[in-house]
Specification:
By secondary structure, the protein is an alpha+beta fold. It folds into two domains: 1-61, no CATH class; 63-226, no CATH class. Helix content is 48%, strand content 13%. It has ten helices and seven strands. Strand 1 (39-45) and strand 2 (49-54) form a beta hairpin.
């Protein structure tokens, strides 16, 4: 219920996490109580704590209207929902572009507003080329991946524009990304490390567990298969292939 709380910072929490791992009856009780609340226990360990996910129709499920309120999104149309989903998908793919990154509990990824925006725009460029080729070959896109349904709307938006007081305009793609990353930080999935590149964040063990679940999603695979993510070095600093051109 307190996503930023960690067992290493709370003695009682730490004791409960250890008990979960050692006491089978307590573990079963934990899962039963969570299920009664409409929650799934994804993982419990000393690094991430108890990582939960809401089931469909749970009172804890974050729906678009709730996300919009928390992220201060004015537009709540279906297109906006898809675009924000694409941003979150790109953030996860940038944070953990390789299967080994998700399997390695010590791995820490880094993402920034500019990197996420650059990755989505590069994906849009590739999908645009695919669409043009398909049109030239009279080949329908009915069997195209889910991502191809959203790229046009994202590509049409400006990347950045300043408001009168110098802030990033909310209707730009980088403004959208910035709100998404702040939301993930509020949920304990990311931690901001600097204001560089529009805001740079590191991933947390809690986010790693969540992305493991996401990695089974077809749209996640589709995005990685576009090959727009490259690993800059072995230290966990990731960037999109398009970032050098910005």
């Amino acid at each position: 219920m307190r996503p930023k709380q960690l067992p290493s910072r709370d003695v009682v929490y730490g004791d409960l996490v250890r008990r979960y791992g050692e006491d089978r009856a307590f573990k079963q009780l934990t899962h039963a109580v969570a299920a009664g609340l409409g929650l799934m226990v994804l993982e419990v360990n000393l690094q991430a704590g108890a990582v939960l996910a809401a089931t469909d129709e749970s009172v804890f499920e974050i729906k678009m209207d709730s996300y919009a309120r928390q992220s201060k999104i004015r537009e709540r149309r279906e297109t906006e929902k898809v675009l924000h989903g694409l941003v979150h998908l790109a953030t996860a793919a940038l944070g953990y572009p390789r299967p080994d990154d998700l399997a390695n509990d010590t791995y820490i990824g880094r993402v920034s507003v500019e990197q996420v925006d650059a990755m989505v725009r590069e994906a849009c460029r590739i999908l645009d080329e695919r669409a043009a080729e398909a049109e030239a070959n009279n080949d329908p896109l009915a069997d195209a991946p889910e991502l191809e349904q959203a790229w046009r709307a994202y590509a049409r938006r400006p990347a950045a524009a300043a408001t009168k007081d110098g802030r990033l305009a909310s209707d730009t793609t980088r403004g959208m990304v910035a709100r998404a990353l702040r939301f993930l930080a509020d949920q304990g999935f990311l931690v901001q490390v600097s204001g560089e590149q529009g805001g740079t964040y590191r991933t947390t063990p809690r986010y790693q567990v969540q992305v493991r679940e996401l990695a089974a999603d077809a749209a996640f695979d589709d995005l990685l298969e576009l090959n727009v993510v490259s690993v800059a070095n072995g230290g966990g600093t990731l960037r999109s292939a398009a970032s050098d051109t910005l």
